[in-house]
Structure formats: C-alpha cells, structure tokens
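OP here, attaching both records as promised.
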Amino acid sequence: MAFRKAVKGTLIGGGAVATAFGLSQFFEYRKNQARLAYAEAQGELNVPYKDALPTREEQLSTLRNTEEFDVLVVGGGATGSGCALDAVTRNLKTALVERSDFSSGTSSRSTKLIHGGVRYLQKAIMKLDYEQYMMVKEALHERANLLNIAPHLSAPLPIMLPVYKWWQLPYYWAGIKMYDLVAGSQCLKSSYILSKSKALELFPMLKKDKLVGAIVYYDGQHNDARMNLAISLTAARHGAAIANYTEVVHLLKKPDPKSGQEKVCGAHCRDIITGQEFDIRAKCVINATGPFTDSLRKMDSQKTANICQPSAGVHIVIPGYYSPDNMGLLDPATSDGRVIFFLPWEKMTIAGTTDTPTEVTAHPIPVEDDINFILSEVRNYLSPDVEVRRGDVLAAWSGIRPLVTDPNSKDTQSICRNHIVNISDSGLVTIAGGKWTTYRSMAEETLDAAIKAHNLSAGPSRTVGLMLDGGKDWTPTLYIRLVQDYGLENEVAQHLAATYGGRSFEVAKMAKVTGKRWPIVGKRLVSEFPYIESEVQYAIKEYACTAIDVIARRTRLGFLNVQAADEALPRIVEIMGKELQWTEQKKNEELEAAKKFLHLEMGYKARSEQLSKTTEISLTAQEIARYKKRFYKFDKESKGFITTVDVQQVLEKLSIHIDENALHEILNEVDLNKNGQVELDEFLQLMCAVQRGQISDSRLAILMKTAEEGLDLRGPVSVDRSGGGV
C-alpha cells in the first residue's frame, strides 16, 4: 500500500513537471515541425550519387585542382563528417580534410550509446534548466533519426537500472517515464518496472543482496567508428572531396574588398602519406576539430581565448560473460557521483566511463587508476559469485571529450555537453562541444550559420532521414543471403551484414576460398572473432592507409581484444603491403606503429604492467611447493629457468605441436628480464598475479598447467611402448 501511494505521489509530481516543460516547449515543437515540413517539400535530393567511391588519390587530385570550394571542413570526426554531408547535400561544393584517420579521435572512443542523456534530464528537472531540457529533447529526436538512417550499425538496447532502496523505485521510475515522455512519438520502447526475481532472471550476474527491483528503459547503441565512417563515405558518394591523413599547415587569408579586413579563404595542407603540400581555397572554412578546436582557432588569431576544456573518459572491455547478450546496466550514482554504464557490445562487455580533466593529446592513454575505478564500481553491482578480475580487461582506451566551458572552470562533471557555433572576425566558423548523438543537428546549425555569414547560395538541410552508406539495402535477414550465396560462416555473415549493411556483398565477393568443406569462403584473421581477410582489402577502398586504421576503425579488433589484434597484425600488414605495394621497411614500420598503438592507447601497456619485477610473491608455502613442482617438470636439469626448448620437449611427449615463433611469444609475455628465458621467480610472480586476478589468460600458465595434468595422467611410459611412442 505504501509503495502504491509513493508511486501515485510521484506520478502526480512527475506529471506536473512534465506539463510545465511541455507547455514551455510547445512553440519550439511547432517551429521544428514547420522546418521539417519545409525541408521535405523540397523533394528528392538533387545531387549526384557515386556508387563507386573515388580512390584517395582521386580525392586528393580534386582537392588540389579545384579552383575554389564553397565549404572546407577541417576535421573528420562525427561532427566534421556531418558538416561535410550536410553541405554537399545542399548542393555546396564541399571539401573535408582530416590530419589522421576518419574517427581516429573522440568519435571512435565513446560509450557506443545513442542517447538523450538520462542524467541531463535529471539535472534539467532538478534545477529547472531549460537549456539542458532542450538538449535532451534534441538528442532524443536525433537518436530516432540515427537509428533510422543506419539500421545496420545501430539498434535499440534495453538498459537496466537496479534499485536497492524502496524509496528510489518510484523516484527513478518517474524520472525514466519523464524520459519516455520527452521522447514522445520517438520513444523506442516504453520503460517498465521489474520485480527482484524478474530482474535476476534477466540479469543473473546482478548482486542479489538488498535488491528490491529494477527499472528497464531503452536507448540506442551503435558501432561508433563505423558510423562515423559511414557518414564520411556518404558525403564522398554525394560528391564531397574528402581526404584523411591531410593536415592543415596554416590558414589562407586575403583582404576583404569592402572592409579591407583579412578573411579566411582556405588552408595550406600537407598530405602526410607523401609529404606533398598544396592549397585548398574555399569561401568558408569550418573548424570541426573536436578537442583541437582551439589549435585551429589560434591559427586564425593567436589572441583568441580558449573555449574548450578537455575531459578524459576511460572505458574498458571485459569478456561477454559479464553481462547478458541484450541487456545493459546503469549505475546512476557511483562512489564519486559519476555515472557508469555496463553494456554488451560486439559480444563483449564494455564498461565506463570516467570524467577527469586532461591535457589535449592525439594519443590519450588509459591509466591504471581509472581502470581500477571502473572495475571497483562494477564489483559493487555484480554478485559476489562473479569474480571481477583485473586480468579480464581485454582492452582499455581513453577518449577526450571537447567540453565547451569557461576556461576558468575546473569542474568538468557539471559542464553541459551542449555545443556552440562561433564565427570569428576573419570568418572562420567553429563548431565545438556537443554529443555524438546530436552530430547531425549540430552540422545543420553550423551550415545555417556559415551560409548566412558567407552569403552562400544553398537550400535547407536535407539530412533528416537521409540513409547512410550501407543502410538502404540492409534487412534483418540479409546475412542469410550471404550464407546461402557465398558459403560464409553464419557468425561471419551476421558480422558483415551488421558492419557493411547492403555493401556486405562487396566484401563477400572479395573473400577467398578456404579450401575446407565449410565455410567455403572467408578466412578469419583470428579464430575467435568474425573478421575476415577480405575486410582488409575492402578497408583500403574505404581509405584505410595504415594497419592501425584496420584494427581500430575498419574492424574493431583493437578495441575488443588487444592480444587478438596483436596476433592478427602480421597478416593484416602482409595483405595491405601487397595491395599498397609497401616495401619490407614500410611493412616493418607499420607493424611497429600498430604494436605501439595497442601497447599505449588500447591498454596493452597497463595490462602487461600487471606482471613486473616488483610484483610481490604472496603465496603460501604449500602453493609455492605446488608451483615449483610444476616448474621443474619443464626444468628437468634444475637450471632455475626454462626456455622454449624445455617447453617444446615436454609438449612433444604429449604429441602437442606449437609453432616455434608462437612459443617464443608465449614465453616473452612472462620473461621480465627479456633474456630469452623464464626464471623460477618470474614464474612464481606470474602464478601469484594469476591467483590475485591481475592476470586471467596467461598462455604460459595455462599451457604449463595443461601439460602437467597431461603428464600426470600419462604416468610413466611402459617398457614395451618406450620405443614406439605414445
């Protein structure tokens, strides 16, 4: 009865707030509907569409040889690519340059959610903040649009909010219902309350103690880097000249004939791949460089004040068994007031994020403190039966959010993720801040401002409902045709359909015959992931220039499992080298650069540092004796160390064959001295780290344990079989 009264009271209060906000936003709604009706009345897009993408060389040629573009966008992240797509679909002659790869920065390092922002709505209601409310409403509109225009790359995801106090149940329920209400007709699915038993049935890993129930609501999830790439490729197919690995050296200026004031009229650029420099002239230059916004603004004027305060957000990836296949988890109030998401993604589990001030860098590195903070918060919500181990972290990354703020502010957690559009005295248009979800509306607002400021001849935005690359011909059953027509594995076919959509047939056509009964085509890069070799070839058509582009953004292997990515690298470099005619020196450089990327930016360094010379050996005497016994089964001569030869001899007795190079790699993971051998102390440090959960999948530890068990089962070899083998 008390619970019903609480719910009823909350309903009345929530309804009052909803009514107030609904009335305050009525005219905004009418204005928005009128704008959309006007845009739709313009008919179909009257711009060319290229089914075959121009090569990167052709794009660079267009950039070099075009007398003047209407718009030059600097930055190939979600917002910059969105600006290019918005501009080109308004029949503006459009160029885009990106100094690294498309989505190489913040846009590939998100929480992978397409959402309005539950916590922003909470702040809007609690503080009666109209700006935050409108930001949430806009984001929810954009969420619906993004799910519609890229159905192959995105989908609704149910997210559970577990409740451990009775009074919180109606409180959170009212807030989530308000979220549904603000979404209106674009609500993905209605939220609902679960009993304790039902919540545990859907999320069995959840901590049972004191759980009173849960609330489930829906947001969108996507493959962020591939989504960014789809926006870029769609712009290119509509006629935009785009080029990655092309940096702006300095801005071009000329005096305005009327005022005599210096105006930005383009950029002097450098092709990082070849070193060639050239000018790109444009009537309007748009700065969409995310965290590097202020760098380009200072190219325009050294006196300009900073408008961005960067904030680092770290995410980790752990095995898929930590969460259900289709249910996320939201921790609304962590120990320090942050919000942590715990979500299934690409058959793994992603957890994050942190929110700490940082310096701007092109290569952010996840730090151990942030990784451990996330693990600690995850432990608070999972059952004690589930041991959350540091060693289960398969990858970790840090992304820099370009928050718009007063440069004197130090508290990044209270900063609104809204955006600003600024036009400098020289005409440089800057779009800064915002959220992944609202990239399209941000681009539209930016182009509207640019068209007005530079007197460009263009119609309204046409990007609402405009299908992104691969989305038009996608259907939920498309993967079945891939299996039937090409003989691909079911898992591989599903992956291709969910990554390339209608373009997946082009990837399948490039797949080579396996020589097996099944699958007929599609050689995997690594056995446990559905990425196949033909994707590397197709990645080059999608403007991949480096091995990092392939492991991080064309496929997501580097974000899912750094060890698997490391294993796939030699084959990736081999395929790319053949396609791009790399020299042996270039291949080695690419291999080393990619390994460095995995080591520093994808958490391999933090992972490997779990085992070091300073690791304390805190084992009991009984455990030490057991592990010494295991070690000496390999160190027959009691040398105090083992080498690949020692391991190979034991494995041969068990009729197990491991490639010599692979064996060297396995021992090298534990060889702290890097002297080509694993000493007893190093082995004991390894086993101690394994017991603590700091390391969970050491190949040497598993190999030696398996071999020991095999030797014990085998027992002594009988005389009559000693000459004939086993």
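Record two, same layout:
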Amino acid sequence: MLSGCRRALPAALRLAVRGWAGGGGRRRVSTSWSPVGAAFDAKQQRSRLTGQSTGLFGVPELSSPEGFQEAQEKALQETEQLVQKACTTPPGPQIVMIFDQLSDALCRVADLADFVKIAHPDFAFREAAEETCRNIGTMVEKLNTNIELCQSLKQLLADKEVMDSLDPETRQVAELFMFDFEISGIHLDEEKRKRAVDLNVKILDLCNQFLIGAHLPNKIDKQILPEHIRYNFAVEGNYIQITGLHADCSDDLVREAAYKIFLYPNAEQLRCLEELLTSRNHLAQLVGYNTFAHRALQGTMARTPEKVMQFLETLSDRLFQRTLKDFEMMEGMKMKLNPQNSKLMPWDHPYYSGVLRAERYNIEPSLYCPFFSLGACMEGLNFLFNQLLGISLYAEQTEKGELWCEDVRKLAVVHENEGLLGYIYCDFYQRADKPHQDCHFTIRGGRLRKDGEYQLPVVVLMLSLPHSTKNSPTLLTPGMMENLFHEMGHAMHSMLGRTRYQHVTGTRCPTDFAEVPSILMEYFASDYRVVNQFARHFQTGQSLPKSMVSRLCESKKICAAADMQLQVFYAVLDQLYHGEHPLKRSTTEILKETQEKFYGLPYVPKTAWQLRFSHLVGYGAKYYSYLMSRAIASMVWKQCFVQNPFDRAMGERYRREMLAHGGGKEPMLMVQVIYRNAAPPEGT
C-alpha cells in the first residue's frame, strides 16, 4: 500500500550525507554502514548518544512537536517567494522548474507530517503533524485556484515554439501541473473557486476523521459473549474490546462474534462516510465532472469509470465458476470440521481457505517461520537487488533524535557505480497505537537541484512484525515475507525514479500503475530460485527444501479465484460509492446488494463493513488499481523474469524503461516498451 501524494519533498530535510564526497557526483562508501541482515537479526544498534541532537529524519526543527510550526512557516515563506517568481518569469523551462520548487517547498514537511501523524508514539507529535498537514493542504488548494499563478503556466503551454523545445519529461510535468489546476476549478468564478477550496479542506478533515474511526475498536458487555471464548479478546472492566476480525482464529464462534461486533455500525462513522461521499461528489460537479469517479480517474491508465466497470465485470465473469468451486471446497471443509453449523459465511473465507491450503500442501506457517528470519529475508532482498540492479542495502547508524522509535532501522541504498541513491527507514515492528497496516510513505522525493546535485529520496516502510524473543530473532510467516517484498518494491520504485522533477518522482505516478513494481516483487518472493538464496533455518542453517517452496507456491492457487472475487467486490463497491449521487440507497444497502452480486457470500444483518474500508480515503474510486496492476505485473514477470529472476540485462531494462521514469512518462508507453523489447519466453 502507498501513502503520499504527487507533491514535493524536503530540500530542507537536510538529511546529513555524512562521509559522502566523491568526484563526479558519486557518493562514496560510509564507515557508518554495516551488513543489512545482521542489523535486523541483532538487537537494535543505538543511535549516537554523543554530539548535538538532531530532529526527526535529520530535520533540526523537528526535535520537538513545536518544530512543526517553525518548519511550516519556513515552507510558507518560501512558497510566497516562489509564487512571485513564477508570476514574473517569461515562458520557458524555468517556469516548470519553479513550479516544482514550489511543490517541493510546500511538501518539505507535508509528506513527512502525513507519516508522523499516524505513526509517532508521542501524541503531541501526532497532533502537531496533523495540524501541519491541514494547514499546508489548505495552502495547496488555494494555490491550485490562483489565477495569476495558473496564467504563467498557461502562457508556457500556449507557446508552441517553446513547448516543442522542451524535453518529454518537462512537457509531461508542465501538463500535469495544469491538470492539477483544472481539476481544482481554476476555470470557475471567484466565489466558486473559494467553494472548491473550502470543499477540499472539508474533505481532508472528513478523511482524517474516517480513518480514525475505521480503526477504533468496538466494545460489548462481556456477559453477552459465551464465557469460553472471552479469553480471545481484550477485557476492560465489564467490557470486551474487539479490535479486529480475528480472521485466522480456528474457533468459528470467535470469528463470528468478532465479525458481528467489530462491523456493527457506528452512527457517527456512518455520518462521516456519507458526508465524505457527498462532499466529494459536490466538488467533482462543481469543477465540471459528472461524478467523483470521473474526476479521480482522469490521468490514470483506465481513464473513465465506465472502463473500470467494464474491466471489473469482465474479470468477475471469468472468475465466477472457479469462485463457486472455491466456496464449495470451503463449505465442505467447514462441514467436516463443524457439521453442526456448516453454512459458509463471510467470516469463514480467510480461515477455511487457509485450512484447505495447509491440508492439501502441508504448509502450516509454523513449519516455514524458522527459515524466514527477518535478517535472512533482508539479505535475500539485498542479494536480489544486487543481481538485478547492482544495488546493495546497508544499515546506517542514526543520530540522536533522528528516529521516532528506537527499533527503527535506517538503510542506505547504494549502487555499485552511482553510489548512494537514497534512504529507507524501516519501521517494521508492532507497538501500541501503531496502525496494523503495511505501507510505504514518501518522506522526500528525488529531484535535480539548481546546484546540479540530486536531492536523494527518503521513504519509510511500515510493517507490523513481531519482535524478536530471547530464543529467536523475528520470524516471518510466508505471508509476512511476501508483504515485505511487496513494500520493498515500492521503496525501490522511489529509490530508482531518477526524474528531474520531484512532482513525478518514484511512486508519484498514476495509482493504477504505482502498484505494479510492488506486486511484481511478490512473483520474486514466490520463486524457488529466489527463495533458495536466503531461506535458512535460523538455528541449523539448513536451506528450505525445494519441495516446501514448491508446495507453498502451489498452495497459493487454492481458493485464488475466491480471493480475487473478494477484491472485485471491494473495487465495485468503491466505484458505486463514487458514482452518481444522490445514492439511490443507503451505503449499507448498496453494500448488501453488491456483496451478493459480486462476491457470493451472504450479507450479515446489522453489519457495515464499509465503515472499516479505510482504502476509501487514499484510494477513493481507485481501489481497482490493485487488480489492474496485478495484470500488468504478471505480464512483466512473464516477459522479463520468468526465465531467469536474476537476469541483469532484464533488470537494467526494467529500471531504465519503467522505474526510472516515475510519473514522468505515460504508463502505457512504458508497459508497451517493456513488452516490445523483452525477449520472448522459450518455445514461443
């Protein structure tokens, strides 16, 4: 999952490039680097305790929550100067550079704050970061409706001679900036532009409120639950807290109780969702679109909601018969294990599909975990990137105050010829108040600065892995290992998106393309030739037997149609919520109807799964992106890597033709080049 927007990131982060000096722009090896595997299987290396303290991510101002206000004020001052400069500069490539600097100035703290507001353990930091996000977000919307600023860009786009002289990336970025003006309502009169800004700010607030509500637990009087299942849940006095669906629990009654209680509708959350959907529709219609989906899908590969629905309906039709067979197998297994209550229900799907995989292929996760220590998995990624791309990962010691939690690791990403490419902060471990989601955050985007130096990208990868114990390092299930590879795919996209402009760096590209590099990494994580390089028993050093890897890979085909059908259901629901308004039925009635048509398992009365659908915030009208990206990633794998997952020539081509462009090139053009240039598989 991605977080971050097409905005800029911190020139002001001033992440100290200690010890880099090399000629020709190449940054040399640092003495503070250490092997990546050992850093994750050992106890955390402490930050430097001597010397002057820095702030979060090396930003001096962010040594305290109050620093967000100072960093914000600096960004807004720089913004004002750049707006004046943009409005007085004649048409030319310099205009695009100024706009990119303007975007960078605004996001110096904005994307960083997007992460801090949900992940920092200190409430004061989270609160300060959220206020900063709101203030800078408001400024972005005001600038997107600034007539004078827009006019300077229009003059450039209207000058054919100048536009013809620009390189393709600069033209693309200029057009993307104009697109941002257009979808924000730059063509409206002053009163309507102000309404558009107010609506955008309101939507931002509603999104934050919905996200908080989506993760809040529900509680129930403990006397209502049978005594023999209460121990599965957290008890607070006379109440039991339900914090999730307990989807992997072997007790059918526990899963049923968790499902019905956790998804019980909350009136305030329901009001928030309805207001969010209505506000999005009002904004879309105000700026000239039929629906929010039409507005959101401009600039994506799919282009229109009609094409998205066509894609989803076609996929659903192809899955239908296989999904029915999957449900029959699950129901048969439930009948075998629980003959008194064998009807298949929504809370059964994740559990019984797992039981079927385990029974048919003997893939009990506990058999695999000892081979997937976190350190071994990181070494596996390191080996893969080195073979494919000439890249190595090194753990780097941090400065006092640079981290928000002591178990965070910082990785330097280093190319064998180009030197340091950027930094990845790995926030991998569970902790109180940390969201249980796997996510990639852009903290700073790469760009070419005026002084000729390249601003290095910085990202955070957030997972929810267990801590090491006295007897073992952190051990991953096969699913956790695959998720790690997925998120590292996003990180490499950020590291290798070597664009001139941060507005299109790395993952700042159309949403339905942004998931391609991450999903492609799942194919590597399922290939024995890759897994064999790193899967070693943490005690004996024994390699994971090929038969176990083969069984694991084959098991993923079990109930795969039903799993994908569930994603189709979510994607269709997302489209309907962001389609024509006013909605013809309540969001819960639409959920019921869509679930029965596009999923197949019955709706459970007095539940409202949509109130936990947090992707409606970041992926509004774009949830289909996972499915479309999977189709493209499958093609890239088959064309480029299925013959040899370590093929350096293919790795370099993949970087050159896809990763390097970020959002600076039309995705379909990149896909077509990969498809056209890749060597055909043997036998074709």
